[in-house]
Amino acid sequence: MQGVPDVNPFVYSRPVAPEDVLDREPEIRQLLSLAAGGHFVRLYAPRRFGKTSLLRKTLAEAERSRELVPVLVDLYGVLSYADVTIRIERAYAQLGGPIRRTIESILRTSGLGLSLGAPGISVKLQLEPRTDPLPALHALLDLPQRVAERSGKRVLVALDEFQDIGKVQDFDKLLRSHIQHQGESASYIFSGSEPGMMRELFDVKGRPLYGQAEPLRLGRLPEADVAAYVEERFARTKRSAAPMLDALLATAQGHPQRAMLLAHRLWDELAPRQTANEDDWQTALARTRAQVAPEFDALWRGLEANEQRALRAIALFPEAPYGARALGAVDLKKSGAHYAVRSLREKGELEEEGGRAVFVDPLFELWLRDVQGGTPSGDDAPV
Ligand SMILES: Nc1ncnc2c1ncn2[C@@H]1O[C@H](COP(=O)(O)OP(=O)(O)O)[C@@H](O)[C@H]1O
Ligand SMILES: [Mg+2]
User: Rounded to two decimals, what is the model's pTM?
Assistant: First the structure.
């Protein structure tokens, strides 16, 4: 078509728009039905599996139903009550329409400096850093109840990157004290990517949120669905990936972001009306690997020596990483290996599949094999 700009149709560096979300329909239905019933859900998936994309689509549908008020709070990197307060205020500030006016008027009467407009609590906390954020935070956590009273609508609050509240002392306790009274007015989704931290928050007896939320896990994307999605987008932009699609799927292993990144790089190799060949694929793969190498280098440097050894054993001896040969090659004892694997699972670098520990990120495994497998390597050699 003329006049349509030739734009790469694969997004890999930010959440995808609701209309571009592949699959996840059952998860969306489940989230909405639990929300309608006033249940709390904890949504778990490794980083980049599409949690934020899923939350946005779910909330967009919730909003369309006109029965739920959707609020998406991004807790990434919060360190203090002030941070959390700012993030929640910011989340409500995204709302439009009549509900926005309702909320504005509730906040105005609180007299705490909260506002959905420009000079909200964020500005106040910045200008007067010694302001106690707690009264404002209490008011914000109470908001769903006030909104429900005034509008008759339930508020659906999604707390994204929820594991990061682990750094804010007792926030889970404070949150619990509010949400336990909100069965009629609010539903919550706690979304997180660190299995260890999420377990700590929800599975440890005595923790405020212990046993409070229905677990929902987001898995890899089925190859056939990724294939159809990729093909359709190449076709729409007058290209074809067909001959190299199997290679792409085998490399991505259903990892949502890795699949999109590889598709993005492959698309970049092609001019309009071109079909991908082996050379295009190899170039795309090499570019992808160069692009992600610094990230793996940093990740590698942050790991314990035994974690590095265990990863190397799994990458180089995937069939028998605990065998004498593998452990001997990486100089690791069996007990040390089990301990390291457990900690790598807590961090979300490994996951269990069919009784085996496998890499969450297929590109990390490739990087490790390459750099460690005897290929002479340059700057990106982990030392
Ligand atoms: N359902 C999906 N459909 C298409 N792409 C997806 C999907 N889920 C994840 N992705 C890919 O993964 C990337 C990261 O998605 P995001 O929602 O930010 O993940 P998370 O919040 O789990 O880190 C997106 O940019 C996109 O490339
Ligand atoms: Mg996210």
Answer: 0.94
Do residue 79 and residue 228 come from a single domain?
Answer: no
pLDDT bucket at 4, cuts 50 / 70 / 90: low
Same domain? 240 vs 318 = no
Same domain, 83 and 110: yes
Q: Which helix (H) or strand (E) holds 266?
A: helix 256-268
Rounded Cα distance, 60 and 41, in Å: 17
Residues 84, 229 share a domain: no
Residue 117 maps to a domain: yes
Residue 283: domain span? 223-299
Residue of 258, 244, 56, 47 whose CA lies nearest to 164: 47
Ligand 1 atom with least separation from CA of 257:
12
Question: Which listed ligand is nearest to 48 at the C-alpha?
Answer: 1
In a domain, 293, yes or no: yes
| Residue 12 placed within a domain | no
pLDDT at 285: 98
Residues with CB under 6 A from ligand 1: 11-12, 14-16, 20-24, 45, 47-53, 256-257, 260
Contact (Cβ atoms closer than 8 angstroms) between residue 68 and residue 35: yes
- List all residues 6 or more positions away from 38 whose beta carbon is below 8 Å from its beta carbon: 154, 183, 184, 186, 187
Q: What is the pLDDT of residues 136-157, one digit of tens each?
A: 999 999 999 999 999 999 999 9
The pLDDT value given to residue 381: 44
**Which residues share a beta bridge with 192?**
44
Do β-strands 356-359 and 350-353 pair in parallel, antiparallel, or remain unpaired? Answer: antiparallel
DSSP structure string for 136-194: HHHHHHHHHHHHHHHH--EEEEEEETGGGGGGSTTHHHHHHHHHTT-TTTEEEEEEES-
- From 304, 299, 311, select the one nearest 358 (Cα to Cα): 311
- Where is the domain boundary, 178, 195, 217? 217
- The 10s digit of each residue's pLDDT in 250-259 is 999 999 999 9
